[in-house]
Design goal:
The structure is a homodimer. Chain A is of the alpha+beta class. The first copy, chain A, is built from 19 helices and 21 strands. At the A-B interface, strand 9, helix 10, helix 11, strand 18 and helix 18 of A face strand 9, helix 10, helix 11, strand 18 and helix 18 of B.
Chain lengths: ~525, ~525
């Protein structure tokens, strides 16, 4: 069985006419995925004694080794992941999928897995786009996916402190529904919202589209519980503390290599009574970036704030004339405001003054609401684009404001040259979607024709982009994470002594190294 | 030679008449400190080969072993520290004080100290109040204080990204002067402002009185450079990143046990054009705390926000009638606003509406400005109080909002019972000085008569308070740090696996364990 395509199957993705036309212009020919029955799945090699021990913890119903479950838990959703599965390659499938029911069962599974030298891939929403779910099985008796979906409870809400405790397997969309029923919002809306889960948000330092207003996920977490093969760690006795290093920030971003996060306590906010999203036009990306910088440095800050560059603005416009606010060219800013009516409208008015002074032209709510309506649809286009013979992938980074222009130019050039040099000149789109007083993220989308070997084709482009990011002094990832894909560059970024420290922590909590081997460290 | 008293010697501290009267009421008799020449200083035991190696790095002028320098670097400024030195006990003095001139010299000193089994106490401002500067010398050939005061440069200012790179030895007060000259402020104003240095802020996770507006110091840091005995670590490639755990947060709060922070890159802000501080009266601590919580959860947030409880409000009032805004009793809130004129005044007006709705009575700017004028004077009273035979100490903690009343009651009871049980009933004062959306700090001041053995007297009270904090689930410290005084309770707070992880990191970067032995881990 092939894994289903991204998202809600009731609203499948299809290419808009403009995109299909653009692909034809690029000289692209369709590529079909192999039939589900032709996907090549290795035999399950989990030793009987190991399986029996795990069954002893979670029960036979919760250890599943059928073809369906194993393919469902094969890798994540990067373009290389999609390409491999489309080519029939399920060689990274786990031997079995294990569904513990609570924290104690997670801890016990880790303990017996270590006893039996079985590697464990912690699995929440399964939406990694950086190879975070492809364990290196060398040296292990087998590999299991530890799927936390049964840990699906909103455990507690503290309305006074405005915190909620959520189990790791609660999907993002479900967390929001559970909190809305009590009058609150989490405010975490990554593009993976329809697939990702709380545990993955925490393990991979997710950041959602409303990060300007509600913060990154690592900023939302005030407490967490971690199961490791050697025991349980509970962190978070206060919002902030001077009691040594902030070890919450050591677990966040550890990507399942140090333990399995089984629950987190997060900040929550009253569900907004009012919401308005609007568009602004800037003459250039630099002008728009300066306007965003002014808002985040001097206020007031919208809840959502993003800037598309000229290329992304042109591609995103439904109008093929490419006119934004009646003028050709230009860059689209989306500014969204959520909150109490008076507060949100006051913020909107003050931000509008700032954007106007910075040279922006107000476009009204139509582009803002259009963006909001479509904001989770991007991933739906990936398989249709691959079907059509296109290659599409995204990557992202972050830097300080003064370095934004150099970073954008370096990555754009690196991607363009690496793909054009292979005979597949790309379109490279870029936006800023997360802003901080000292800097911002840059998010790139690359579209070109598939070459004969699209995996090798993209690998060259990715390597070139990674080198450009490193050379510019930026971080290799702002919110996608490290996984296996960014590991080498990550180690260059933090240096050998920092890598050694992470390995020392891993050795302490996971002495047999069973947790997500090959990822991060 | 005795160490000088706290702060600027041109503005020495003396007890106000009201305090002297209160002490007389408590039945206190004066206690003199031993004469400087009678302070007992152990012989310097630094082996000649070790000293020669260190001199080889920094030069003979920068290795000082005279009585003056050694006493100056003996412990910090906790009440037990003051009591010990007042009693003539300088047994924790380092064998020598070393003054490296740059990062490379710091790294080389650490390397040669490790080669010679010499323990190193990193020393910035020397203002620890938790025993952070009293190394356990057992097993070492000697102990040096590594004083970073020669690393006193503002290295760079990035006006676009609004960051500044400051060396570790820049004093807080000097950092502010250097930045003001360029039109910026750091916004870090702890009570130790006149003594503490940038490196100490970072190593101990300092939080200043303007944390509502400018954040804690650990929130200001976007990059840092750490010298360890095994090499240098540079962290901070972007404001925020998903590249693994945030290792900056592993170094911040490490209190000199993992390495010596030689420089940090921090957020800066335009120097405020406008500033106004005002007072508000609330009927009770709970009512005031609810008002503060509303401001931090729903906005707008003042730059400075603090609430004194009934006891602290009464003690702080110069008017012995104890009337606040014409009414007896009540609790004083200080709300300060800094920024551009229009923005700060708009924020002040909106906050005033919120405080009024919450039951507050505006007291105007007189109490606010009085607090601002005197805000660094508290520590000046410590030696005069000890001279007069009083015992005065502070301790602090933090918790989530719903737990604030229980924590306040538990700590107050613990301190009161522990000291009353020794025949010295105390006055226990409390304030909230740092607020977060999910919780707040609680800062306690304890004043009573000195018993015959004030060290043992306070140790009992402190132990009782620590137990109360632990039992209530709060953190053992919000901004003072761990040092040696909080180590045992800290280990209970984070648990054995977390302690083991920190030890594993220390073993990696400092395999001989020379860095601040006995502190933190």
């Amino acid at each position: 069985m092939q894994r289903p395509r991204w998202g809600n199957p009731e609203t499948p993705g299809s290419l808009p006419a403009i995109a299909a036309a653009a692909l034809t212009q690029l000289g692209v020919r369709p590529r079909a995925a192999v039939a589900p029955e032709d996907v090549s799945l290795p035999d399950s090699v989990l030793p009987a004694a190991a399986k029996a021990a795990i069954v002893g913890v979670v029960g036979a119903d919760n250890v599943v080794a059928d073809r369906h479950a194993r393919v469902q838990h094969t890798r994540g959703y990067s373009t290389p992941d999609l390409l491999k599965l489309r080519a029939g390659d399920a060689s990274d499938a786990p031997d079995a999928v294990v569904y513990p029911g609570d924290h104690a069962e997670v801890a016990d599974v880790l303990r017996v897995a270590a006893e039996h030298d079985v590697a464990v891939v912690p699995f929440a929403g399964g939406t990694s786009v950086v190879g975070g779910l492809a364990a290196a099985r060398d040296g292990f008796a087998g590999v299991i996916a530890l799927d936390v979906r049964r840990l699906d409870q909103l455990v507690a809400v503290d309305e006074v402190s405005r915190t909620a405790t959520l189990q790791a397997g609660v999907r993002g969309i479900q967390a929001e529904e559970l909190l809305r029923a009590k009058g609150f919002t989490l405010g975490q809306f990554p593009q993976s919202y329809e697939g990702a889960s709380i545990g993955g948000y925490a393990a991979a330092r997710s950041a959602g589209q409303s990060s300007a207003g509600y913060g990154r996920f690592d900023e939302m977490v005030v407490g967490l519980v971690l199961a490791t093969p050697t025991g349980t760690i509970e962190l978070g006795t206060a919002p902030r503390s001077a009691a040594g290093p902030d070890l919450r920030q050591l677990v966040l971003g550890s990507e399942g290599t140090l333990g399995v996060i089984t629950s987190v306590t997060v900040k929550i906010h009253p569900a907004p009574a009012h919401r308005v999203f609007e568009g602004w036009r800037f003459e250039s990306f630099d002008a728009g970036a300066t306007a965003l910088r002014r808002l985040v440095q001097d206020g007031p800050l919208p809840t959502v704030l993003r800037l598309s560059d000229e290329a992304e603005t042109a591609v995103n416009l439904a109008d093929p004339s490419g006119k934004l606010g009646g003028s050709p060219g230009g860059c689209l800013v989306i500014a969204g405001y959520e909150g109490e009516l008076d507060e949100a409208e006051a913020r909107r008015a003050a931000a509008a003054r700032s954007l106007t002074v910075a040279g922006g032209t107000a476009l009204g709510t139509t582009p803002g609401e259009a963006w909001r309506e479509g904001r989770f649809r991007g991933p739906y286009l990936r398989d249709p684009l691959l079907d059509a013979g296109g290659l599409v992938e995204t990557l992202e980074t972050a830097t300080f404001w003064s370095n934004v222009p150099a970073l954008k130019a370096a990555v754009t050039t690196a991607l363009t040259e690496a793909l054009a040099g292979q005979g597949t000149p790309p379109v490279v789109l870029c936006h800023i979607s997360h802003v901080y007083p000292t800097g911002a993220s840059l998010y790139f989308t690359v579209i070109c024709a598939q070459a004969d070997d699209p995996l090798a084709q993209w690998a060259k482009a990715k390597e070139s982009a990674n080198a450009a990011i490193r050379a510019t002094g930026a971080t290799i990832t702002h919110h996608h994470g490290i996984g296996t894909d960014h590991r080498a560059t990550y180690h260059e970024e933090i240096g050998p002594l920092a890598v050694a420290a992470l390995r020392a922590v891993k050795q302490t909590w996971d002495p047999k190294g069973i947790l997500n081997p090959g990822v991060l460290v």
